[in-house]
Amino acid sequence: MPERQSPVSDQSGPTAPAATGAGAPVRRLRPAQLLFEPQADAPEPERFFDLESIDDPAELLRRSTELTLAFRAAAERATDFQAVAAAQLADPRRFDAISPAEIASQVEWTPDYAARMVEYGRGLLKQPRRGEH
Question: Which of 77, 55, 92, 60 lies closest to 124, judged by CA?
């Protein structure tokens, strides 16, 4: 008696014998049925760090304060990076140096604010970096 084999099929879907031998039925594998319908492109409700799911007011205050401090620190650090970049772009030693007014027009600052950021950035560049002695 011939040994039965499981049906085999590649991605293109050709038939494969269900059993060896003459007269054996030919079976075709079908893709698995979906057990659910994919959702439509409905927008997800906006979530802000899951703060809307916190019911306890004390916990909400603690977590939102924590986020406020983290965002404030991130904004201060980003401002430092802006100042360093502005100072580097305005460095007169660069062959392609640009003026504070040109920097201001690129990032929608006032020329006065751009000049102050260039100066602040120059001060940051003079400071030794963390980890350096």
Answer: 77
Residue type, 86: A
Is the pTM higher than 0.70? The answer reads: no
Task: Give tens-digit pLDDT for 30-83.
Answer: 777 767 666 667 666 777 788 888 899 999 999 999 999 999 999 999 999 999
Q: Which of 32, 22, 130 is nearest to 80 (CA)?
A: 130
CA distance 27 to 14: 10
HSE, side-chain direction, 13 A CA sphere, residue 30 = 3
Alpha helices in 32-127 (DSSP H): 57-89, 100-107, 111-126
Q: For residue 26, give every residue at least 6 positions away whose Cβ sits within 8 Å of its Cβ, in sequence order, or none.
A: 15, 16, 17, 18
Residue 1 neighbours by CB distance under 10 Å: 4
